[in-house]
Every structure is written in C-alpha cells, then in structure tokens.
UniProtKB/TrEMBL annotation:
The keyword Transcription applies. Keywords: DNA-directed RNA polymerase, Transcription. It comes from Labedella endophytica. This is DNA-directed RNA polymerase subunit beta. It comes from the Bacteria. GO terms for cellular component: DNA-directed RNA polymerase complex. The keyword Transcription applies.
C-alpha cells in the first residue's frame, strides 16, 4: 500500500467541515479493530523511540489517506476510531498551524474551564507551539498514558471549538458565510471532543475495543 502514497495527501478543510461520526461495515470494522489493536499492543509493549517517531510522522510521508483507509469508518467510540481522530487532528493542525493556533488562543481567552491546562499547549500558543502539541498528543498514545493523551486531545478540541464560536460571533453581521463555516467547524470540534472523552473513559475501564 505504501507505494500508492508517495506524497502526503492534503486534507481539504471542507472535508473536516463535513465530518460525521463513522458508521462501519462489518468487514471494515474487523480490519480496523485488528490493525489498531495489533499496532498499539506492539508499540506500547516495546516503545522504541525510532518506531514511535515514525508512527507520529507517518502521515507526513504517506498522507492521511493511508490511515483513513484503515480506521476512518470505525465506530467513534472504539480504538481505531480514537486513533483516526487523533491523526485527523494532527493533520488539520499541521496543514494550517496559523489558523489552528489563532482559534485555540481565542478559545483560551473566552473559556472558563481548565481545558487549556489539560490540553497542555505552551503559552502563548503560536503555530510552532500548536504543532508541537499535536505531536505530543499523538506520541502519548504510543509511549505514554493513552487515556491522558485522549483527554488532552479532547480538551484541545473544546478550546478550539470555543475559539471558532467566538470568532463566528464576531463575523456574524459582516461575513455571515464565514461565520456559518466557523460555527460548523466548532460543532465538529465539539463532537470529536465528546467522542474522545468517551474513548478515554472506556480505555480506563479496559473496555475500549
């Protein structure tokens, strides 16, 4: 399969706007679960630094399609579903770190929760810091506390959602189309946050399949 993905596949923002929770056919579900469990078990049993770094940067070389083929249709509250969402978030952040950091910083300014602390981004959070956060979260799935990594990603999504909502409110009268786009993006972030939080809870109870 690697030969088919020599260059990273750009992930259009419109696809993220249209994101919905996955509904998986039986065969796709079986493959997704088997591959995700095999990968995670192998790496976490022996978290070799080089292997972990290759997994973190996998989509940089092969594109998001290679991951999507395996896990994007898995149930949102499953191991492959969780892995897919973390990779998806990393691709979105790395493709536009300027916007990602801007919405995150706005979210930090307007939220009244501990989510910015849970997410763990360095402050102030610019493009470099938000990119580093994405890498840290993904790396944490393989060589850290898996549930904590999911919680950090969920917190990032809630902060980004708050930021998108705040900017959407600012643009409601002057740029209604852009405002609607950001409102949809906020909803997607919020949805992913809820899904990842559920996955973290299932992982802690040893029932994330």
């Amino acid at each position: 399969m690697a030969e088919e993905f020599h260059k990273p596949t750009m992930f259009p923002s419109a696809v993220f706007e249209a994101y919905q929770g996955g509904i998986d056919p039986a065969e796709s579900s079986r493959i997704a679960h088997e591959t995700s469990h095999a990968l995670l078990s192998r790496v976490r049993a022996d978290p070799d630094v080089d292997i972990v770094e290759r997994l973190v940067s996998y989509t940089d070389e092969h594109g998001i399609d290679a991951i999507a083929d395996l896990w994007s249709h898995a149930s949102a509250r499953s191991l492959p579903g969780a892995l897919w969402r973390i990779y998806l978030l990393r691709v979105i952040i790395r493709q536009d770190p300027v916007s990602s950091s801007f919405y995150f910083e706005r979210g930090v300014a307007v939220t009244r929760t501990i989510d910015p602390v849970v997410a763990g981004a360095e402050a102030p959070t610019g493009p470099d810091e938000i990119t580093a956060l994405a890498d840290q979260i993904l790396r944490g799935l393989f060589d850290g506390d898996f549930a904590v990594a999911l919680d950090r990603a969920a917190a990032f999504c809630r902060v980004a959602s708050a930021g998108c909502t705040s900017v959407a409110d600012d643009l409601d009268l002057t740029e209604p189309e852009r405002s609607s786009e950001l409102t949809r993006r906020a909803l997607r972030y919020s949805t992913i946050a809820a899904e990842l939080t559920s996955c973290a809870r299932l992982w802690r109870s040893e029932s994330l399949d």
